[in-house]
Amino acid sequence: MAGGSTSTPAVRLRRLNRWQAETLREDLADLYVESSRARAGQEYRDREAFLRRLTGDIRRAGFALLIAEDTAFAGCAYGFPVPREGTWWRGFDGTLPQSVEQLTASGHVFAITEIVVHPHTDDHGLARRLQQRLLADHHASLGATLVDQADAPALGAFLSWGWHDIGAIRRPPDSMVLSPSAPVLLRALVLPLGPRTPARPDGLAHENRTQRPD
């Protein structure tokens, strides 16, 4: 090899089924802890909270998980199709945009509930790759996610990737926390994936002919 240099293994994306996700849940929790900005002494609680969220999402219809790996796990992203009845948007402050409501009712919205990227990965665009692949695999017209309003770095990252902040959602605090706080204030973000036209510059089109069968 010229100059004796070594190449960095490329990060590969791989889909896991529900059973594989269950089997690897402890490894995914380890990845989450290694990738989070938890305060000293908070790691165990954060890990347990992640496992509760993952376990709950695995049980949801249409759950899907992508793992990124080179010589080890480099990241993951998972989510599920937003139920047509709109329960995902419960607690929304104000009136949900009509285009978002229509796409939800037609089954075209996919929620990304977690994106985790190990800080030592050489693939600096990995988080965006994971979200794009997850949404593309499900032929979604709209991506949706909720970000803690206090998490400025995460909120800034999503906005830089083209997501739109459409308002606030208030959710009850984690009941498993020793001292539950007030309701959590989250920002509701959406990523339009439809074609942009002069009539729909935001890409939030609603096509009756593309509605998915029940």
- The total of beta strands comes to 7
- Spatial strand arrangement across the major sheet: 1-2-3-4-5-7-6
Radius of gyration: 18 Å
Helix content: 25-40%
What is the end-to-end distance? 56 Å
Question: What is the helix/strand order?
Answer: EHHHEEHEHEHEE
Helix-strand makeup class: alpha+beta
Explain what this protein looks like in three dimensions.
The structure is a single chain. Helix content is 29%, strand content 25%. It is α+β, with helices and mostly antiparallel strands and 214 residues long. The chain has 6 helices and 7 strands. The protein is globular and about 45 Å long. The longest helix is centred in the first third of the chain and has 16 residues, at 43-58. A 7-stranded mixed β-sheet has the order 1-2-3-4-5-7-6. The chain has helices at residues 18-23, 25-35, 43-58, 98-105, 126-137, 152-160, and strands at residues 12-16, 64-69, 73-81, 109-117, 142-148, 164-171, 184-192.
Annotation keywords:
single chain, 214 residues, alpha+beta, seven-stranded mixed beta sheet, 6 helices, 7 strands, disordered N terminus, disordered C terminus
Offer a concise description of the structure:
This protein has helices at residues 18-23, 25-35, 43-58, 98-105, 126-137, 152-160, and strands at residues 12-16, 64-69, 73-81, 109-117, 142-148, 164-171, 184-192.
